[in-house]
């Protein structure tokens, strides 16, 4: 029998040990615990120290996910690393492959900012559904503390560092019940981590550009408006595809950007508070890591149990947004 369904069979996560509370942050920029907590729900975030790399965090989260699903690194066919902050712009997935000893896996990075994990989930599922691969490791990991302007209080208070990972496996029953993905590049300017350089003359008449990526810029109000409008819509779409109604959802697991966004989306969808997963008070917005990090915590706390139906949605730079409805476990 062909196993062309997809099951998510294990999770893992890793965060740096260093934690920065709002109160301490208010010694760095003009802000307060009260402002940050009431506007965002964030109280602290983890920060990678200079000796910590993205590949280290990603590998630690992946090792846990591999163990949880009961496979070995050599069983992996594909490693997808969703990140916007690779150690190396050429990609970091291969380094993770080497660190894990996943000798049979092809590995590459995937960039879709805070939507990266959901986009990666759908991408991984396609390889499994077509019968090409059986065991896929999907990682969401970001170290945005290296790319925020620590003098810009409008952005630096929001982000934190971390990694989360899941194993997707071929299975008789398909547990990815529905999904929908969207992009709107016309709104790209609202959230950027853009390259900027200056023109330099290489030879007479031949100019090249020298520069680097610049810290994050964000129009918070526009991103907020976009999230609160688009996320409920896309979850509805994914639910329609899954032939499920909102009340059949056991857990709402959104990208952890802002508690006010999470609450507004839950309210619009009529999902009660006890079904909403939130851990951003401890970690802030960890971008591509936020969904698998919260998923892993909820699984380990015994909240999300096998067969529970999870509605997840990522949204962010691009602009990109997406939703996936899945049934946890095998
Ligand atoms: N501490 C104290 N005051 C602050 C801070 C701060 N950290 N930041 C801004 N302020 C001030 C502003 O200067 C402004 O003061 P003013 O009125 O005197 O000019 C006032 O607070 C209000 O600022 P706003 O920007 O209007 O605050 P807002 O209520 O919009 O909240 C926030 C800002 C929290 C960023 C909100 O807009 C938001 O969460 N947006 C969504 C961001 C998001 O979810 N991004 C996800 C994608 S991330 C990705 O893809 C990488």
Describe the model.
The protein is built from 10 helices and 15 strands. It has helices spanning 22-25, 33-40, 54-69, 93-100, 116-129, 153-156, 220-242, 259-269, 280-283, 290-300, and strands at 5-14, 19-21, 44-46, 78-82, 106-110, 135-143, 161-171, 176-183, 191-192, 195-203, 206-213, 217-218, 251-254, 309-316, 320-327. It has a 5-stranded mixed sheet, with helices on both faces. A 4-stranded mixed sheet has the order 8-15-14-13, sandwiched between helices. Helix 3 packs across helix 4 (93-100) and helix 7 packs parallel to helix 8. The structure holds acetyl coenzyme *A (ACO). Acetyl coenzyme *A is lined by residues 31, 35-36, 39-40, 113-114, 153-154, 157, 191, 220-221, 223-224, 227, 257-258, 261, 285, 287, 316-317.
Please tag this protein with its features.
single chain, 330 residues, alpha+beta, Peroxisomal Thiolase, Chain A, domain 1, five-stranded mixed β-sheet, four-stranded mixed β-sheet, 10 helices, globular, binds acetyl coenzyme *A
Q: What is the N-to-C order of secondary-structure elements (H for helix, E for strand)?
A: EEHHEHEHEHEHEEEEEEHEHHHEE
Please identify the top-level CATH class of the domain at 5-175: Alpha Beta
Beta-strand segment tally = 15
* Separate helix tally: 10
* Helical coverage, percent range: 25-40%
Strand order of the largest sheet: 1-7-6-4-5
The CATH architecture name of the domain at 5-175 reads 3-Layer(aba) Sandwich
Largest sheet: 5 strands, mixed
* Radius of gyration, CA atoms, in whole angstroms: 19 Å
pLDDT < 50 runs, ≥5 residues: none
Question: How is the CATH topology of the domain at 5-175 named?
Answer: Peroxisomal Thiolase, Chain A, domain 1
Strand content: 25-35%
How would you name the CATH homologous superfamily of the domain at 5-175?
A: Thiolase/Chalcone synthase
Q: How does the overall form come out from the CA principal axes? A: globular
What is the average of the pLDDT values? 97
Q: What ligands does this structure carry?
A: acetyl coenzyme *A
Task: Give the N-terminus to C-terminus distance in angstroms.
Answer: 17 Å
Based on secondary structure, the structural category is alpha+beta
């Amino acid at each position: 029998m062909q196993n062309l369904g997809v099951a998510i069979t294990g999770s893992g996560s890793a965060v740096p040990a260093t934690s920065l509370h709002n109160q301490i942050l208010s010694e760095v920029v003009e802000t307060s615990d009260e402002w940050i907590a009431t506007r965002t729900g964030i109280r602290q975030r983890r920060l990678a120290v200079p000796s910590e790399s993205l590949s280290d965090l990603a590998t630690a989260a992946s090792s846990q996910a591999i163990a949880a699903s009961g496979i070995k690194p050599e069983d992996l066919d594909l490693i997808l690393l969703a990140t916007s902050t690779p150690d190396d712009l050429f990609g970091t997935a291969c380094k993770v492959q080497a660190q894990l000893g996943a000798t049979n896996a092809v590995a590459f990075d995937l960039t879709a900012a805070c939507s990266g994990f959901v986009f990666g989930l759908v991408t991984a599922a396609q390889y499994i559904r077509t019968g090409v691969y059986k065991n896929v490791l999907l990682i969401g990991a970001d170290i945005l503390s290296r790319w925020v302007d620590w003098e810009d209080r409008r952005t630096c208070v929001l982000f934190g560092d971390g990694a989360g990972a899941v194993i997707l496996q071929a299975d008789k029953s398909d547990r990815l019940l529905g999904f929908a993905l969207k992009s709107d590049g016309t709104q790209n300017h609202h959230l950027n981590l853009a390259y900027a350089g200056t023109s330099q003359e290489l030879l007479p008449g031949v100019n090249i550009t020298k520069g680097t990526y610049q810290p994050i810029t964000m129009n918070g109000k526009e991103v907020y408006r976009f999230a609160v409008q688009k996320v409920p819509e896309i979850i509805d779409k994914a639910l329609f595809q899954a032939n499920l109604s909102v009340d059949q959802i056991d857990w709402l697991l959104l990208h952890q950007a802002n508690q006010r966004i999470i609450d507004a989306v839950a309210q619009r969808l009529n999902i009660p508070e006890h079904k909403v997963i939130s851990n951003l008070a401890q970690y802030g917005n960890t971008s591509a890591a936020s969904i698998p990090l919260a998923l892993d915590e909820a699984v380990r706390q015994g909240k999300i149990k096998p067969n529970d139906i999870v509605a997840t949605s990522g949204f962010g730079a691009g602009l990109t947004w997406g939703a996936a409805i899945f049934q946890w476990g095998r």
